[in-house]
Amino acid sequence: MKTSKLSIRLLWYITPLVILPLLFLGGFTLTNVTNSTKKQAELIVSRFVEQQQQKIFNYIDSFHSITRLLSTSPVLADFLAREPESKNQYIERLGELMNVFASYSEAYPDIVSINYVAPDGKSDAFYSSQLTPAPDSYPFFDQVLQSNLRQQQFMIPKEDGSTSLYFVHPIYNIDYYLKQPQQLGFIVVHVEPSILNASILEAPFNNTLNLFLTTKGQILFSSDYDLRGSYLSEYELEQIKRLADYGKLASIELSSIDKEERIIYAVQMTDGDYFISTTPKDLLYQSGKAISLITALIVIISVISLPILIYIVVRNLLLTPVELLGAASHRVGDGDLSVYLPAHTNDEVGVLFNDFNHMVNQIRHYQDELEEYKHHLEEKVESRTKALEAMNSKLEVAIAQAEQANQLKSRFLANMSHEIRTPLTAIMGFTEQLLHNKDAVNDEQHLSTILRNSKHLLELINNILDLSKIEAEKLAVERGPCNVVQLIHDIDSIIRPLANEKQLAFNINYQLPVPKTINSDTTRLKQILINIASNAVKFTEKGSISIDISYNSNKQHLEFAIQDTGIGMSEREVERVFKPFEQADATTTRRFGGTGLGLCISKNLAQLLGGDVQLISEPGNGSCFTVQVAAHLNAEQLQNEGFIHSYEQLSPSKDVQLSFAANSFDANILVAEDNPDNQLLIKLLLQTWGLEPDIAKNGAEAVEMALVNDYQLIIMDMQMPVMGGLEATQMLRHAAYDGPIIALTANVMKTDVDTYIEAGCDEALAKPIDKDALEQVLVSYLHIEKDSQNKWENLLKSEKFQQINDNYRSKLPDYLSQVVQLYRAKEWEALRSLAHSLKGSAGCFSFEAIHKTAGQLENALRSNQTEQVEQCYNALIDALEEAS
To answer: Boundaries of each HPt domain copy (predicted)?
Structure first.
């Protein structure tokens, strides 16, 4: 085959274009493998060190927060606020403070001790989880006194090579924001840094050595335990400081550790210490040599083979088809339209051949059409003219619809303005009357009017929000058990009074059998039926309203037919009535009011519940709305027992136990709420039910009060200053509070409620507060607490418990002799342990005197109050002798 000029030119172009980039790429790869390896190692090590740095920062910040909470504790403030009237009162306050310290120590196991230190350095209240005595002084206390910082931490190495963390926070008097602050002392928290030890032991590579250095070069933490407490040389420390400033990997030989050349990455911590990670240099760059050899081999093979392969491929795939296409194009240019290129592959060249054949066919077709157009030009012009007229007609219709939509929007805004301003006028007017006229006589009637108009205004807003969610396809419906008889009873309790006011007959008819329970969204189904039934009452001046309930077994739908004898609607009005913001006509709006949203929302909700709303109406003869919803019955509900067959079964059952009227509770309840008005409202509600709650103004106070006191139930607002309800709930659950926590919030979207439940809340109630819902939730959870208490009381009265109690009483002389022996031998730690055991066991078996005196002796021994030990010891001896 003859070689074409294009083939030769292609070969000349391909050879340098392929070989030169390959040579450049190979040389670039060979020269930059080491840099790439270094960058990769730097990325891995820097990410590792930054992660460990962030982990240490978070760990230290968490204990700063705990120290800050302890310094603002109400119990500590009470301990410091007033001088005790007696030693017993001082011991009692000190015991309460020790309980607070102990609760924090139990919640955070890394805490070794908590100490309240006076400004003169004396330890006035010391708690240690390891039962160690209070230190005489701290090596850093002079630095604390000279510093103006609100929070400080210190790392102190110990003799065994380990390091302890100390967190310090000053305590000020309660008038801090009103006048010159007075420093009352310091809270010192001693922590064993488990996170620091774990961070040092982690490593990104084998043979990696991690170090934590002080500014003087002392090694506080090390993955090699033998290096702890040793020092780096000044020259090595200066090199590490420069590396920390630049934030890059560098090769350094640490002679103080070993003489091996290492790659080091260092960062500086907040208090000036340094965290460094070192890896042997040979280990990091070992893989670069193998990559260089492989790269060189690939480049040589590619330089030889690629140009040949590319030329062969391009010749077969491109040059030969181009020659065929050129010859065919030349023939078409000469007027030969019988040219046809052979079928080719399905690639771009094949598409080009097909397009060329199609072009030739189109040229032939256009030539035929041109001849035809010459004979039918007038017909084509007339056809196009008619098409333009049709388009103009459609455009006029679209303009008319746009103007109608604009008028509809204006009418809706005017209607909504009227609907919202009407109840607002009543609310504002009667409120001003009650505020300015203190001797008003119909104040109950005025308040009732305000409440009724407020509910109407809330209903308007809810309708607008529901429609917005439906149009955005974000309205979610639930599927749960729905008692049909109870549902109709609730509808009857709302609609019948409205019908009685207008002297209308109201009837409810069941077409048996109907299911006892369906699986649907009770709230949304009730909303649909109330919307339609209340409309029936509104638009009926005389006659009756009826609701017929039936079950369609073929479609498995529950149907509600709502019939009235009202004004009725024409066919045109029926077509418009389910559209948003529309009513039958403007006269209807002026006469009866309303937003035109209710029926639109009802139809959309019914469709979301698996059904629909249908309407049959005639002007002057009333209307009949048929609501269908899917029953979603399971196999058990489809049995004969799952249906109502007789009218005697139509009486709704009400759980009277879920109200305070049928129950009596003696419960301690904590309410966490920052708004004073809401505090007063919730307190009044609970007092109405015989409950006297404690109030916390923020989440931090709620956590503090819940850890100190015994609450059967907590009502927690989610949005509060200082500490929010979500964070407070998580902290309480972490501190082992297992009582019910009820979330109270205005954010009641499903995602918000799921977040509250996941954080540890048992229930979520919406604002504004629904009195009935709050009552039902409180009674339900207080019943659970009461049942648990009754079980405990029954256990205390059982014969088996009496046998155990008598057995414990028989051991009391033994305990008495042990207490005497330990006291005389001055074995204070063993005596404190025995007092702690007696406090717990005596309390379980109702020996209150032993429980109280043993606790006092334990607190005196723990606080090193030697003056009170003898008095508490004698009281415990008297209690043991009396019980024996």
So the answer is: 797-884
Residue 79 burial (10 A CB sphere; 0-12, 13-18, 19+): buried
Q: Cβ contacts of residue 167 below 8 Å, gap of 6+? A: 60, 63, 64, 66, 67, 151, 152, 153, 188, 189, 191
Q: What is the pLDDT of residue 429?
A: 61
Residue 335 and residue 329 in contact, taking contact as beta carbons nearer than 8 Å: no
- Could you give the CA distance from residue 530 to residue 598 in angstroms, rounded to a whole number? 10
**Cα separations in angstroms, 531 against 525, 561, 616, 645:** 10, 13, 17, 29
Is-contact 551 515, C-beta < 8 A? yes
Decide: 640 and 578 in contact? Cβ < 8 Å.
no
Contact between 713 and 729 under an 8 Å Cβ cutoff? The reply is: no
DSSP designation for 521: -
276-285 residue pLDDT tens: 777 777 666 6
As a whole number, the mean pLDDT across the chain is: 77
18 CB neighbour count, 10 Å cutoff = 18
**Closest of 206, 213, 209, 205 to residue 223, by C-alpha:** 209
Helices 87-107 and 866-883: crossing angle in degrees, nearest 10, is: 90
What single string gives the DSSP state of each residue in 97-164?
Answer: HHHHHHHHHHH-TTEEEEEEE-TTS-EEEEEETT-PPPPS--TTHHHHHH---S-EEEEEE-TTS-EE
Within 709-847, where are the H helices? Answer: 725-734, 750-759, 771-797, 799-810, 812-824, 828-844
Q: Are 782 and 666 in contact (CB under 8 A)?
A: no
- Binned at pLDDT 50, 70 and 90, residue 630 comes out as very high
DSSP 627: E
Rounded Cα–Cα distance for residues 67 and 114 (Å): 9
Supply 270's token pair.
């907040």
Strands 669-672 and 517-520: unpaired
* Type of residue at 559: E
The DSSP 8-state label assigned to residue 268 in this structure reads E
pLDDT tens-digit map of 112-140: 889 888 888 888 888 888 888 888 888 88
DSSP state, residue 310: H
Q: Nearest-CA neighbor of 46 among 243, 277, 252?
A: 277
Report d(CA 438, CA 779) in Å as an integer.
37
Parallel, antiparallel or unpaired: strands 713-717 and 183-191: unpaired
3-state secondary structure 352-392: HHHHHHHHHHHHHHHHHHHHHHHHCHHHHHHHHHHHHHHHH
Find, among 617, 635, 628, the residue nearest to 576 by Cα: 617
Percentage helix, strand, coil for the chain under 3-state DSSP, each rounded to 5: 60, 15, 25
User: What is the distance between the alpha carbons of residues 572 and 274, in angstroms, rounded to a whole number?
Assistant: 81
Alpha-helix runs per DSSP H in 562-649? 571-576, 586-592, 598-608
**Do the Cβ atoms of 670 and 692 come closer than 8 Å?**
no
Segment 840-857 mean pLDDT = 75
Cis peptide bond upstream of 513, omega within 30: yes
In the block, which residue shows the tokens 């991690």? 210
Three-state secondary-structure class, residue 875: helix
Residue 71 half-sphere exposure, CB side, CA atoms within 13 Å?
A: 24
Q: What SS3 string covers 293-308? A: HHHHHHHHHHHHHHHH
Q: Report the distance separating Cα 73 and Cα 93, nearest Å.
A: 13
| Cis bond before residue 204 (omega within 30° of 0) | no
Tell me the Ramachandran region of residue 394: left when phi exceeds 0, alpha when psi lies from -120 to 50, beta otherwise.
alpha
d(CA 687, CA 487) in angstroms, rounded, equals 31
